[in-house]
């Protein structure tokens, strides 16, 4: 990524002090090069001089000489207090080789950029030393390396060709998934299963392959779906549905937004992301009935199903579906390996064939090696063995996290005990600017997902995950986070009183 969400370019280069070319000249050359190649655009800003000098490993005076040179050339504009901005790419220097107007091309694309906070999260996740308190993945320590090795060795023997695969995905994998799904009451042949490159791709395929612009996607008011721009990018409207402790409330769906043939309902009924809510069986049947009567298909996102702790959750909506109302999404990302980039979409044959046909035009199928590897995990019984080992480890992490919260957050937040999945939905007691908290936490090397990225409004909540950070990181990170919250609350309180 060459830019952060504030339009400040990323600099990951240092001048070479052993070169004969003086340092300011090297810096000038580097900046001109970035602009002339189209990496940096007119309007982009450079980091502030203090920071830039630090990144480049030079004295401020060296940088000042380089900046003055670039200003004199009309390439950048340096305003006191407003930073340094790239102002022109068509000056004489580049007359013969001015790059295309990439900014205009970028702004013309159909797909919206990510939510700015998510862009920052995606980048900071890989910053050295950062404590990831909200990451929705298993820690690498929870992935069984011995079993993975065994599976990959078998793959080397079984995957005798790495040619393209059939349009719906590897038949062995679809058969293994058909067997796996039948334990959850979903009885479908392999022809009703499409292998996708992560369940995100299934959402993308549905958005481009099945809906008209202006369609309505009903969804839980607070939802993972809000943190994406998939449906909005193709001009569809997300319509929030109120929730209670049982999840989405069908009776509260605003029927004014219903129009036949172009509405859908997206839900995460089991270990909901981010609230952790599990929809009870009764509500599932009620929701299915409502959707059947109103002819609204459901996308059931069941990403966290296998991660239950003490009790198996109610069966998926899909298992009660006698009328082909539900498109069911599963993924291996949460319970085993997001790097496989494998998910599955289950639905009526006509829909699966159509979306499979579109997928062939987009990427000619999901990665064949991953498909063989997952087949091996499922067929050999290793996946079930792994889940049996994983569950107590996740329970231990959840319990320790709850103890830490009890110690440091008792007077500043409330939460519920999750019965599965990865998340604790922390509701802060006082109104607090979570964007400010996010920035302060990041400065203290703590990465959090503020609740507002899952909501239509600022909501005073934080998604905490116990699946990724190690216990010692959770102890340090959560205490640091609690201190920051107390500090902000105290400062805000003082500001109100003064
Ligand atoms: N659905 C839900 C509810 C999720 O939480 C996630 C991952 N955050 C996904 C889908 C995407 O998963 P995948 O890696 O399969 O694309």
Walk me through the structure:
The chain is of the alpha/beta class and 498 residues long. The protein folds into 3 domains: 23-109, Arc Repressor Mutant, subunit A; 118-136 and 387-497, Aspartate Aminotransferase, domain 1, CATH 3.90.1150.10; 143-380, Type I PLP-dependent aspartate aminotransferase-like (Major domain) (Aspartate Aminotransferase, domain 2), CATH 3.40.640. 40% of the residues lie in helices and 13% in strands. The chain has 16 helices and 18 strands. The protein has a 7-stranded mixed sheet, with helices on both faces. Strand 6, helix 9 and strand 7 form a beta-alpha-beta unit. The chain is globular, with a radius of gyration of 26 Å. The two termini are 43 Å apart. The model has no long low-confidence stretch (mean pLDDT 92). 4'-deoxy-4'-aminopyridoxal-5'-phosphate is lined by residues 136, 198-200, 224, 268, 273, 301, 303, 331, 333, 338, 343.
């Amino acid at each position: 990524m060459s830019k952060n969400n504030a339009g400040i370019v990323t600099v990951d280069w240092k001048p070479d002090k052993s070169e004969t070319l003086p340092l300011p000249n090297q810096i000038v050359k580097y900046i001109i090069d970035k602009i002339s190649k189209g990496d940096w655009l007119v309007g982009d800003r450079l980091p502030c001089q203090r920071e830039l000098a630090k990144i480049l490993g030079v004295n401020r005076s060296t940088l000042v000489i380089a900046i003055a040179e670039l200003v004199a050339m009309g390439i950048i504009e340096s305003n006191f207090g407003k930073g340094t901005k790239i102002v022109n790419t068509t000056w004489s220097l580049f007359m013969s080789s001015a790059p295309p107007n990439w900014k205009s091309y970028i702004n013309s694309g159909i797909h919206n950029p990510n939510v700015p906070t998510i862009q920052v999260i995606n980048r900071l996740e890989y910053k050295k030393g950062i404590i990831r308190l909200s990451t929705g993945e298993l820690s690498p320590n929870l992935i069984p390396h011995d079993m993975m090795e065994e599976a990959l060795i078998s793959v080397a023997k079984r995957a005798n060709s790495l040619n393209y695969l059939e349009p719906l995905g590897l038949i062995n994998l679809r058969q293994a998934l058909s067997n796996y799904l039948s334990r959850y009451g979903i009885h479908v042949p392999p022809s009703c299963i499409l292998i996708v490159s992560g369940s995100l791709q299934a959402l993308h395929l549905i958005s481009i392959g099945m809906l008209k612009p202006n369609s309505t996607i009903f969804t839980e008011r607070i939802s993972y779906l809000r943190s994406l721009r998939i449906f909005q990018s193709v001009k569809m409207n997300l319509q929030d549905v109120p929730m209670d402790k049982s999840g989405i409330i069908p009776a509260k769906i605003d029927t004014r937004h219903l129009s036949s043939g172009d509405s859908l309902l997206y839900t995460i009924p089991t270990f909901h992301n981010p609230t952790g809510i599990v929809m009870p069986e009764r509500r599932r049947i009620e929701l299915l009935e409502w959707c059947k009567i109103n002819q609204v298909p459901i996308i059931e996102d069941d990403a966290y199903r296998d991660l239950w702790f003490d009790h198996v959750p109610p069966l998926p909506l899909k298992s009660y579906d006698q009328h082909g109302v539900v498109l069911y999404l599963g993924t291996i990302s949460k319970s085993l390996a997001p790097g496989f980039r494998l998910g599955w979409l289950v639905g009526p044959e006509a829909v699966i064939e159509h979306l499979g046909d579109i997928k062939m035009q987009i990427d000619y199928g999901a990665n064949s090696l991953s498909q063989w590897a997952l087949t091996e995990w499922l067929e050999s019984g290793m996946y079930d063995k792994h889940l049996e080992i994983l569950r107590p480890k996740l329970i231990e992490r959840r319990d320790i996290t709850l103890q830490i919260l009890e110690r440091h957050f008792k007077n500043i937040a409330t939460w519920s005990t999750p019965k599965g999945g990865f998340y604790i939905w922390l509701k802060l007691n006082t109104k607090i600017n979570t964007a400010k908290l996010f920035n302060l936490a990041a400065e203290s090397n703590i990465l959090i997902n503020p609740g507002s990225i899952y909501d239509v409004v600022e909501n005073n909540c934080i998604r905490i995950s116990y699946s990724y950070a190690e216990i010692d990181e959770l102890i340090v990170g959560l205490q640091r986070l609690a201190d920051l919250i107390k500090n902000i609350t105290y400062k805000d309180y003082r500001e109100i009183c003064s």
